[in-house]
UniProtKB/TrEMBL annotation, chains A, B:
CDD domains: TOPRIM_recR. Belongs to the RecR family. This is Recombination protein RecR. SUPFAM superfamilies: Recombination protein RecR. PROSITE patterns: RECR, TOPRIM. Residues 53-148 form the Toprim domain. The keyword DNA repair applies. A zinc finger (C4-type) spans 30-45. The keyword DNA damage applies. May play a role in DNA repair. It seems to be involved in an RecBC-independent recombinational process of DNA repair. It may act with RecF and RecO. Keywords: DNA damage, DNA recombination, DNA repair, Metal-binding, Zinc, Zinc-finger.
Length: 171, 171
């Protein structure tokens, strides 16, 4: 891309540079859900049609985009901006879990949905948040883990298969 | 492999050929579960410790191996040997679903577990078998579909994410 801009379109390169610089200054985090936004509150938190009684906890702003695109979810979000990882110095403070605790303690949250990747660090993060929600007596759910759609059983790893098996559902 | 055998080890090649020829003649299908076996009944169906009241329906013998390796499942199997695919001329008769119907009608099956790949043809097959089991009043479950373990939400396809979201479970 750099070669293309240098050889063919220097004006576009300058424009891209100025847009990037402006975004770096202008885009901040939503005061409520912590996703990336230009305004103090993001468009989802501002939308009165979204049901803020359902809160979906995700790792990053890209997960918000993925869920908005793939599902009919009409609740609110809480964006962690990472996963708990004590070895990298990322603890509950770095993920601003205090804000989530406040939101849970404030009442009005009927269901906390954990949409965190089922990796080792992600599972630890889910566990921590689930305990936090249990203290605030808010019901917690997590998105299903199992065989991906279109996936052949034969090529699925053993851990996923075991998980899918133990988590089988009535048809 | 062919070059290696021809250049380095022709005796091993001859041995492999004879073993392959023998397997082609000797290995047949289990009379009860239809998996590959040398005996009339496979080792799983012969094992009195396996609970034949739980029956797991899979597409092929390799799925039996995968489930045996990954899970603690101690029931029996029914191996379809494929998926329903009318365009390829594969109907209920080709998968010997009549045998499964008999087994369900015979009573004694407390749970039918569908461990069929969540592809289009696989889902159609699951649906067909679930209806068959419903007629025989046997409870049916299917293995969980969702985000694979260790998978990053960001890289999961939209269909899987939507499915995982709607199939969320209480923590």
């Amino acid at each position: 891309m750099a070669f293309y801009l240098l050889e063919r379109d220097r004006d576009a390169g300058r424009h891209l540079a100025s847009v990037m610089a402006a975004s770096m200054d202008r885009i901040g985090r939503c005061e409520s859900c912590r996703t990336l936004t230009e305004a103090p509150l993001c468009s989802i938190c501002m939308n009165p049609k979204r049901d803020q009684g359902l809160v979906c906890v995700v790792e990053g702003p890209s997960d918000v985009a993925a869920i908005e695109q793939a599902t009919e979810f009409s609740g609110g979000y809480f964006v962690l901006g990472g996963r708990l990882s004590p070895l990298d110095g990322i603890g509950p403070e770095e993920l601003e879990l205090g804000r989530l605790r406040q939101r849970l303690a404030g009442g009005g949250v009927r269901e906390l949905i954990l949409a965190i990747s089922p990796t080792i660090e992600g599972s630890a993060t889910s566990h921590y948040i689930a305990e936090m929600a249990a203290l605030a007596q808010v019901p917690v759910t997590r998105i299903a883990h199992g065989v991906p759609l279109g996936g052949e059983l034969e090529y699925v790893d053993g851990g996923t298969l075991a998980h899918a098996f133990s988590g089988r559902l009535p048809v």
